[in-house]
Amino acid sequence: MKLSSAVLALGFYAPVAKACLAGPFSFEFEGECSRETLLEAYKDQVYSATGAIPRDCTTTAEEDFQAKLDAAGTTAQEICDKIYDTAEKVPFTDAAKKGTDMHFEQMFFNGRSDWQEEIETIYETDDESATSVLKRDAEHIRTFHDGTAQGRRVAWPGELTNFQSSVTDSRGNPTCTTNAAMCCWPKDRQANDGNGNCADPYDVNCVDNDPADNTDLCYVDMEKGNASTGFDSELGFIGYPRDNNDGEVRRRFDRVLHCDCLYCSSDSCPACIHQSQGAIHCHGLAWSNDANDATARYRGNNIFYVAMYDHMYVRGYVENVPGAPMCGW
Whole-angstrom Cα distance, residue 162 to residue 229? Predict the structure, then answer.
């Protein structure tokens, strides 16, 4: 990362009584931006450069650096804030390349895009060549992961209903109330990847298959998912008191309406039935309250990796738990 002379322009030309080095300068540094990092780079690349400091200078590198900050009316922290605030952010829409209006991304994080609802089949072509092949249809996810996402910051998709809140971080950027997000998948649509139980031939052994089960789903508060699901439920709950790993989380949802109680019986809540959880796989991510922390700055990269690359493209895990979006906070 390069710190240009423009950042400390006031310090270069204002009178600096204690400074030994006058005039503009620039230096580069790697890693996290902090006072220690900036000072070390200044000392090595500027203060200690051959001929940079007069022989009669008695000011240390730290004193010289601080004098320039004081003259510019700034601090090392403010410089780091500016560096991070002005750093490039790759639009999240560059990952899928499905347009820039975020419509595809909204459908994806709800669990309802074509990548998630389609299953590979040989019945759509006369020669029985496969269509709806995930690795082929979502190839750009792999190229984005292997290229752009490795070295550039991806913007957080905070405008999606899944991640909207009234909370902003210390830089004024939208963030989740809990500084965390979670994705859950009830379906596996890809064979031969060592994950889930989808298998060849797809039209027989991958019609409604399950991911590797790593979660005990207790209940879904449908009101909290209204913005993404459109159910418009104010009191609806779906309870899953049993964990039998048989895929029932999807197949029996057509019998569930609204329920005002979490664990209900046919007498107390006739519109609700006890649900078996079935196989479900969840993965969460969290980030720091400090907007300059790497976990906060690169949370867009992380949600891309968790939702689009690792669990969908690599493992084939798709769709959403009924009543909730696939991912949210």
Answer: 10
